[in-house]
Write a structure and sequence with these properties.
Elements: E1 6-10, H1 16-29, H2 34-42, H3 45-50, E2 55-62, E3 65-76, E4 84-93, H4 102-117, E5 121-124, H5 131-139, H6 153-160, H7 170-183
Parallel strand pairs: 4-5
Antiparallel strand pairs: 1-2, 2-3, 3-4
Helix pairs in contact: 1-2
Length: 194
C-alpha cells in the first residue's frame, strides 16, 4: 500500500467549517472540554482571525478527508530588528494521520508562503516537555532560540513587591476547619460599615 494522497490548501471561507472541526479536536486533545471548545469555536473569533491579513492557515486533507492544519502569523524576529519572519502559531494533525507526512506537507506549504512574503526565517513555539515535537522540528533544521516563560500579571507584581504567597500547612488548614465546624458556621467576610 502506497502513501496516502495529501493535499494542502489555504484556508478560505469554504474551508472554515473543516478547519474549525480540527481546531476543536486540537483543543480537546489539549484538555479543554468538548463543550468549552465548541463555545470557543463558535463565538466568531476563529472566523474573524482567519480573515486577518497577517494570519494565514493551511488545511491538509488525506484522500479528501481533513487531517491537520497549520496557522501562520506574519511577524518579525524581534521588535527591534525588522527581519521578516513567519511564526507557526499552531500545527495540529489528527492522531490517525500522524507519521504519514501530513506535518511535512503543512510545513512545506508554510515554507512556500514564507518565501513568497520574503521572510528570512520561520519560527515555531514548541512546548519544552514535548520531546517528539522538539525532535521533529530539530530534524527539520529548527534550532532553539529562546525559552518563553509566562506568568500572570498579579503573580509578577506580587513577586516584584517582595510579597510571598501565603502558604498554610495542612495542620493549619485542618485546625481552621475544626474551629469553623465547632462554631457551626461558615466564616463570613468582614462587614464594611457604611
Amino acid at each position: 500500500m502506497g502513501r496516502p494522497a495529501i493535499a494542502v490548501t489555504r484556508v478560505e471561507q469554504p474551508h472554515h467549517s473543516a478547519f474549525i472541526e480540527l481546531w476543536i479536536a486540537h483543543r480537546i486533545e489539549g484538555g479543554t472540554t468538548p463543550e468549552a471548545a465548541q463555545r470557543l469555536a463558535l463565538d466568531g473569533t476563529l472566523r474573524a482571525a482567519l480573515g486577518r491579513s497577517d494570519i494565514c492557515a493551511f488545511l491538509a486533507s488525506v484522500d479528501g478527508v481533513p487531517a491537520g492544519y497549520v496557522v501562520l502569523a506574519d511577524s518579525t524576529r524581534s521588535l527591534l530588528v525588522d527581519s521578516p519572519c513567519v511564526s507557526i502559531d499552531m500545527l495540529f494533525v489528527l492522531p490517525d494521520h500522524r507519521r504519514t507526512g501530513v506535518s511535512r506537507a503543512l510545513l512545506a506549504a508554510s515554507a512556500r508562503y514564507a518565501d513568497r512574503l520574503g521572510a528570512e526565517h520561520i519560527a515555531s513555539a514548541v512546548p519544552a516537555a514535548d520531546r517528539d515535537a522538539n525532535r521533529f522540528f530539530a530534524r527539520l533544521g529548527f534550532a532553539p532560540e529562546t525559552i518563553r516563560r509566562i506568568t500572570t500579571v498579579t503573580t509578577l507584581q506580587r513577586r516584584l513587591s517582595g510579597q510571598r504567597p501565603q502558604r498554610y500547612s495542612l495542620d493549619h488548614v485542618l485546625q481552621r476547619r475544626r474551629e469553623v465546624r465547632a462554631r457551626g458556621t461558615r466564616p463570613q467576610p468582614p462587614r464594611i460599615a457604611g
